[in-house]
Amino acid sequence: MQGITKSFPGVVANDHIDFSVEKGEIHGLLGENGAGKTVLMSILYGLYRPNEGRILVDGREVTIDSPAHAMRLGIGMVHQHFMLVPSLTVLENITLGREPAKNGFLLDRKRMHRDVKEFCDRYRLDVDLAAPIYDLPVGVQQRVEILKALYRGADFLILDEPTAVLTPIEAEELFGAVRALRAEGKTVIFISHKLREVLAICDRITVLKRGRMVDTVATEAATEESLTQMMVGRKIIYEFRKGESAGQKPVLTVRGLKALSDRGISALKGIDLEVLSHEILGLAGVEGNGQTELVETLTGLREAAEGTVTLDGEDITGETPLERIRRGVAHIPEDRYKRGVIPDFSVMENLIMCGQRDRYARNGVALDFREASSCSDQMMRDYQIQAPGKDTPLRNLSGGNQQRVVVAREFSRNPRLVLAAQPTRGLDVGATEYVRGKLAEMRDNGAAVLLISADLDEIWALSDRIAVIYEGRIVAVKPVNETTEQEIGRLMAGGRND
Amino acid sequence: MMVNLLDVINVGIFAAALRMATPIVYAALGGMFSERVGVVNIGMEGMMLTSALGGVTVSYYTGNPWLGVAAAVAIGGLLGLIHAVVTVKYAGNQIVSGTGLNILAMGFTAYMSQILWGSRGASESVAGIKDITIPILSDVPVIGPIIGTHSPLVYLMPVVTAICYIVLFRTPLGLHIRAVGEHPTAAETAGIDVVKIKYMGVIVSGMLAGLGGAFLSLSHLNLFARGMTGGRGFIALAALIFGKWMPFGVLGAGLLFGFADALQMRLQSLGILPPQIILMIPYVLTVAILAGMVGRARPPSDYKPYKRE
Amino acid sequence: MTEGLAAAAKRALTDARRSIEGAMFQVAAILLAFIVGALVLYVSGYDPVSAYAAMLMGAFGDMFGVGQTLTQATPIIFTSLAFLVSSKAGLFNIGAEGQFLVGAFTSSLVGIYLGGLPWVVHIPLALLAGAIAGGAWGLIAAVLKARFNAHEVITTMMLSYVATYLTGYMVNYPFKAPGWVSQTVRIAPSAELPRILPPTQLSAGILVALALVAFTAYLLQKTILGFELRAIGLNPSAAESAGISINRGIMTAMFLSGAMAGLGGACEILGVHRRFIQGFSPGYGWDGLAVALVGGLDPVGSLLASILFGALRSGGMIMTRSTKVPLDIVIILQGLVIIFVAAPTFIRSLLKRRSK
């Protein structure tokens, strides 16, 4: 790929990138969130068209204008968000778009089954072909995605952040599969923002930073530090932990909490948890083990089937979200766009949310615009929110600034309890540091912070104690200096607590 | 006034139920295709109505009711195309577009009716589709009178339902349709032409609605009357939900609503209750059924417009 | 100090410019609809120019025309505000016609049977009754949605049919006045909304309508409830996280929406017809939907668009009498406008092509 440039409204995602891959190698594409890795590969896969630049395959220039075309060229992609149709079976998903037909009209299911089974056996990827996707765990779904790409004749496989949804053990299995693919002569591009993985499995590594290509290096010549330097331009990770502290009292106490997921399956199977004042309790776990349901139950957005939630000694299990907000519970939602902000509202309107009935109300009926205005100005100053004005629609702000709005709104209430779910997801380095700093600040001011994150580095950097959630239960709680990352990783994967 | 229950519940009412179910089932099957590709089609009422008018018009001028049926299907498809263009190509609000089509149909059919036949109420009688009788079947006791003699369009109803089932669940096309509705990006990456399939689904929904309209104006009656669809396009949507977006479920739901319709007409003819109260029955039933679908109704698609960059 | 004023003035100008820019799109949709309508007329053998001219003259040509235009516009203002309020909360209330009828009938009952009261009490009471009845009718659909997740498009539509038949039943049986016509007896004089522009039928109802426009604007932009409803309409998940009760919001919005439509029905009875007549509404509920969309889902826009549609109706009636063009062309125009308004990008691409 030469000189590839791709812009979206307001953002230059790829800026004149030169990128080349050799046949039969595992090539790592490394960069922070938002560096442009996925966009670049999406261009290669025909999902986007570049504004400038050209692509050469085997020395021949090609224009890839659709995924179908990419597949014809032997390029396959396994996305971060799976491209699997939930109600169709594994078999149907793998053959989607190229189903063999009997008499040109009806599905030839027998042949479908035969063909795919052959592939499964050849690459030793074991899946239940008749299962509908929504029944399968995430690790298996990923296997289906890889099979799908291989079935379509991919010689060149792009894996986009494949370990984001895997436990450490599943990740090892994936690495084994990737090495096997290389042995079969396939070429693999491994997109990641995780240094250690990329160093472990790739032959060469290309680093992207803010849409630009920094350099391509051979793995033997690279170290974590050198790569970090390239990715970020400086050394990162400040540790926000402080030591022990006396006089801490439990703020949040959860006993025997049970709840169902949206599908009616048991998601929380008896959670026991305690978060003290002046502490950050990091809850580690692979996504999909009940974290979402836990946060929803704690904020009052989901009904608890059994168990109690206590705040400062008072039972709040049955209370509404508004009542909990009034008690001093703050919530940084894991999905900013879904739960955190209203993009079509102005910055000010987003800042006063949660308080429209109390702080910003006048006579119980009207909104107090003067108070709203002055508080918004204050918050924008205090939290360094960059926007043309407080009447700007929120959607015009960058992701980092939008998260600052959420943080400003929640933290300026001086909460007793902060529930932060994936608070730095999708943010650039500067914004990430800012949010983490603010969380530490809340902790230092006496709040109890429950930090839920799938990013082990983040858990490690911030937590005073670490708990692990697995299949709807808390399997361990340890002070941070009494455990190791390996142990946490093992517990996240369901290993037993000894 | 005591009414013998047998006056109400008898063979005749079941036969009538089959008849009244037909337009609802066709429209609901149409709605199913549209929603399965991810487009809500609220405008089926208008498509049925306009097709009914078109069918009568063609039959009026050609004397051939089957040409009328063909015209009705074509008109329905055309309206479906408009809805598709607005919602797929221009990513317009699906409900607004459908409502606009309904209102347009209301006005247009009344307008044309007046121009063609000079009255805003109803058209003249036209050549209609004659009922046919299936020889051996109609002699079977009890069942015979119920299903033995009907319009061909009624007999076509289960056939079309079966075809819909086969297409949707036994052909590659059906898989593509379901993929496009549930996860258009996945379908796109699998190499499926999402836009084409969406267009197709919506146009087919219009065509099926047209078939339902044709039944109303060319088979059930032989004329066009203003507003003759009477909300059946909306009842079809309820039947679609009740039938869980599955062809045979829709058939069953349509039969239920058809029965309510037939019941209402039978009660009216018996005159035991004021007509207005009886006329309410199908609509109240629809609301009740929708209420009864607590949480169990999960549509097969997300209805966001699909954008390609 | 002067800096603050200058900044505020600048902001007001940009706001005004933005609203006018926004309105251009609605105006374009209206024009497009009229063009297509002209085509329809032409193809069916009528002269579009004379038809439109007759409409225009009939609607605005003289004082009588203007009065009748405003009379026709009045109920539409109510139903369009009804649709507007519900849509701000993310609901699609297409049953305004039914809520309108229910409100009309209930107010007529209050108008008939509470005859001894002085008008300062009787009129507000009748209006209130109409509003509450319409609100309750809307609430049914809201409860069905909140409890059973029943989509309000279908339920409000069905309830509209039920309302038509129910009021039809009432006016043909229990409350029927002696005589051939399906109507009630006349309401008591103390319940009549005065005519403010004789000999037209324009009543004080339009003043109520104007007040409602102001109230709606205030409600949506300046009150807590308006803030919460808009939040629910724009992003229900985020609203829920912010402590807003979605179910309460849905029910409040539908009640308000139905109440506005019901109030419109009440004004129409008390001011224009003075009794409930079966079929007195030529589809004001549907007009309201089109008007709200054309008005850009904004209270003032609804007011202006209501006057436009009122002109279409009253001018249309004159047009039918003089040119024999069927009155239904008005409904055709309405449908066209809605379809064009549904696809903003279509209009935008047309405008872009023209400017190239």
What labels would you give this structure?
heterotrimer, B: mainly alpha, 14 helices, 2 strands, 1% strand, C: 356 residues, mainly alpha, ABC transporter involved in vitamin B12 uptake, BtuC
Largest sheet of chain B: 2 strands, antiparallel
DSSP strand count of chain B = 2
Gap between N and C termini of chain A: 50 Å
Overall shape of chain A: globular
Strand content of chain A: 25-35%
Quickly count the helices of chain B: 14
Oligomer status: heterotrimer
Indicate the low-confidence ranges of chain A by residue numbers.
Answer: none
Proportion in helices of chain B = over 70%
Q: Catalogue the unreliable spans of chain B.
A: none
Strand order of the largest sheet of chain B: 1-2
Helix content percent band of chain A: 25-40%
Please identify the top-level CATH class of the largest domain in chain A: Alpha Beta
Report the C-alpha radius of gyration of chain A, rounded: 24 Å
Task: Count every beta strand of chain A, where a strand is a DSSP E run of 2 or more residues.
Answer: 24
CATH superfamily of the largest domain in chain A: P-loop containing nucleotide triphosphate hydrolases
Describe the structure.
- The complex is a heterotrimer of chains A (498), B (309) and C (356).
- The radius of gyration of chain A is 24 Å and the shape is globular.
- Chain A is built from 17 helices and 24 strands.
- In chain A, the strands form six sheets. In chain A, strands 6-9-10-3-11-12 form a six-stranded mixed beta sheet, with helices on both faces. A six-stranded mixed beta sheet of chain A has the order 18-21-22-15-23-24, sandwiched between helices.
- With 309 residues, chain B is mainly α.
- Chain B has a domain at 23-117 and 148-229.
- Chain B is built from 14 helices and two strands; from the N terminus they run αααααβαβαααααααα.
- Chain B has helices at 5-8, 11-36, 44-62, 65-89, 94-117, 143-147, 152-170, 172-182, 184-189, 194-220, 232-242, 247-270, 275-279, 281-292, and strands at residues 132-133, 149-150.
- In chain B, strands 1-2 form a two-stranded antiparallel ribbon.
- The longest helix of chain B has 27 residues, at 194-220.
- Chain B starts with a helix and ends in a 17-residue tail after the last helix.
- Chain C has a domain at 73-315: ABC transporter involved in vitamin B12 uptake, BtuC (Orthogonal Bundle), CATH 1.10.3470.
- Chain C has helices spanning 2-43, 48-60, 63-88, 96-113, 119-148, 152-172, 205-222, 224-234, 236-241, 246-273, 284-294, 299-323, 329-342, 344-355.
- The interface between A and B is medium-sized, with 29 and 20 residues.
